[in-house]
Amino acid sequence: MYRTLTKFLKTFLSDAQIYKHGFNWSPMYRRTTGKIIEVSDDLLYIKIAIPLNIKNRNYVDSIFGGSLFSATDPIYMIQLMTILGNNYVVWDKNASIKYKRPAKEKAYSEFTFTPKEIERIKEQVTVNGEFDVVKTTQIKSKNHSVFAEVTKTMYVADKAFYKQKRALKTHRR
């Protein structure tokens, strides 16, 4: 559903606009209480905000840890999928969060890739067919006090390599 809608919206909006508004309008993402507030035109930079409100306030009046984690969870994967394009398969492989202190105010997180990182990913996939990308972001206050640190591992593969690998696994069963 989301891919079909994105294809249609590309007629009217840039990838950055689709990314920002698509997430913010999506019921899946809205339930996290996070909101994308900034997206660079090349999608290499994304910033989200997670407000402290009635929907995510926990028993001790801080942002529920699940809200912090879920608001950051899909960003890197879909960011990377959009940057790399349709010739690649991108899947979340692993995720972890380390809580540092209670988030008792609005929280922010930034997600970045450099052009050099994207080039390295493409090179590794060209050479090996697949590659694991590990990215870490911090969830912080406006004054840069760190509430949590999220680490994501994403699997990236050439689409043809991935299909062949899946076919071999299916055939062996």
Structural description of this entry:
The structure is a single chain. This protein has 173 residues and is α+β, with helices and mostly antiparallel strands. The protein contains seven helices and six strands, in the order H-H-H-E-E-H-H-E-E-H-E-E-H. The chain is globular, with a radius of gyration of 17 Å. The two termini are 31 Å apart. The relative contact order is 0.15.
Average pLDDT:
93
Strand content: 25-35%
> Secondary-structure element order, as H and E?
HHHEEHHEEHEEH
Helix content: 25-40%
- Outline the biggest β-sheet: 6 strands, antiparallel
The number of helices is 7
Strand tally is 6
The structure class reads alpha+beta
Distance between the termini: 31 Å
Identify the overall geometry.
globular
- Low-confidence stretches at least 5 residues in length (pLDDT < 50)? none
**Which strand order does the major sheet show?**
1-2-4-5-6-3
Radius of gyration: 17 Å
Q: Mind sketching the topology for me?
A:
Elements: H1 2-9, H2 15-25, H3 27-30, E1 35-39, E2 45-50, H4 65-72, H5 75-84, E3 88-99, E4 107-112, H6 115-128, E5 130-140, E6 146-158, H7 159-172
Antiparallel strand pairs: 1-2, 2-4, 3-6, 4-5, 5-6
Index terms:
single chain, 173 residues, alpha+beta, 6 strands
Can you give me a brief rundown of this structure?
The chain is an alpha+beta fold. It has 7 helices and 6 strands. The radius of gyration is 17 Å and the shape is globular.
